[in-house]
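Researcher: Hi, I'm a grad student and pretty new to this. My advisor asked me to get structures for two proteins we've been looking at. I'm not sure of the right format, so I'll just paste the first sequence and hope you can take it from there.
Model: That works fine. Here's the first sequence with its structure tokens right after it:
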Amino acid sequence: MHRDPLDTNRSFLYGDGFFESIRRKDGAWLFLEEHLARMRSSAMLFDLNIPFENRDDLARVCDQQVRGNPSDLVLRLTVYRIGYGLYTPERPYETGLHYLIRSLEAEDDGYFPAENISTLQLIADISELDPITASISTGIRKPIGAFHSVKSTSAAIYSEALIAERNRISDEIILINELGRVCECSSSNLLVQFGGKLFTPPPEDGPVRGTFLDWLKSRHKVDLRSFQPEQLYWADALYRCNAVRGIQRLKLI
């Protein structure tokens, strides 16, 4: 009897997996070192294996998947457990990989800073971006736990937050954690500007580990700081950032 492969896809059944959304822009893959670092830490948490030894391995697989497609796109790479069992997987189990290509309109991009730009110029540039409307989640709180930093396929908290705020006319939702502190945006990390300084919520406040944010912090001074929701209204500027769209400015409503 033919068996539907979803029967053993534990990402589909239990959210037992994680994913990376890797951007190709102008023919080049962005932030591969940071993606690979996050994949390794996620795989360790999930007790899964990834077949990429280095960034060249990852780039080669990405190239194979998108051959013949336009240069500007997003490749979603999902890593998941294959196996039987209910909530406890039966051994032996294997690691599965799935690839999904999504085209992307380049004009929808935010700001991708040049490699050697100064922090002063970075802040000057992003301060001039046209803002996207954002609101703070009022009903959904993100729990903090061992897996809060992982880009997990179990992403119900983000869907529920967006559904709960569907009557508010905004393009982004800023999530609050279970302790009442600012956490992150629905699909991005959050940057908060006070004067000439940039801040972001610390790992212990529950944001997903961001690959673009890792890249940014390795080149610019981005301080860690906890925020109460009302403090965001006092900031000089707010931004969301991720590896697909770069940096986009937010305007609270």
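Researcher: Oh nice, that was easy. Here's the second one.
Model: And its structure:
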Amino acid sequence: MASLNEIPFVKGHGTANDFVIIADLDGRRVLTDQDVQFICDRHTGIGADGVLRVVRTLQLPEFVDQADTAEFFMDYRNSDGSIAEMCGNGIRVFVRYLDAVGLITEADVAVGTRGGVRHCRMNSDLSITVDMGPVTVLDTKAIPLIGIQDELWPAVGVFMPNPHAVTFVESLEEVGSLEVAPPVLPPTIFPNGVNVEFVVYRGPNHVAMRVHERGAGETMSCGTGACAVAWASARNYPDMDIASERGIQVDVPGGTVYVRQIENGNLSLTGPATLVARGNVLLPA
């Protein structure tokens, strides 16, 4: 029998945005910030951009109102232990896990999140499509300014529901390293922190991006960020049709996802999800 500090895990990724999945169906395990930091450390732990705790929604009093629709809740934590409202790549990996271990038997599944219930579909090509919900625009007259390379770049503030500051550049290389969070001004405009995306035009309905995720640093992909980027791109470039059959192709360092505005006005995100390993992690005593 595993000791209290030995936890079974599965590891997976969505376009190289990687996660450690921990099953806690009865909601008995408390993961501290330090536990998450240890697990996600790429030198002394397993290594990941975040942790996905799988718990039955009924076990979470704060979100029990979602239980009638979503049997399972995705408790997502960034690699520094902080909490995020949603994770577009993580939820696809979460669904792939539910299917792989037999917790679901249908192609359509609803998942509880801190951003609300998200409806997902496993497609025949093994991709997963997620209804990511509506876009909310930053409600302020101030324009976010991103500081990079001693310059200030105007940005668009978008919530998915995670906060994003999206800016358009000529080259993704010109922004330099994104390991340290680029300053976003004024500092009060995103009181809970913000993900920062840099976008380049690749052609009609096609963009590429890099991202610094709050609590994780630069990552190979960001699902909510891809949605924010596609929405902002559709308003920045005249040849972008986000409501087209495939939507907008968003290239990330770890692959490609597609973002489309669907009939209910929400954005959908389609991309791969892969499980790669399983084992036990030994938390420090």
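Researcher: Is there anything I should tell my advisor about the second?
Model: You could mention this: Helices lie at 33-40, 88-100, 223-236.
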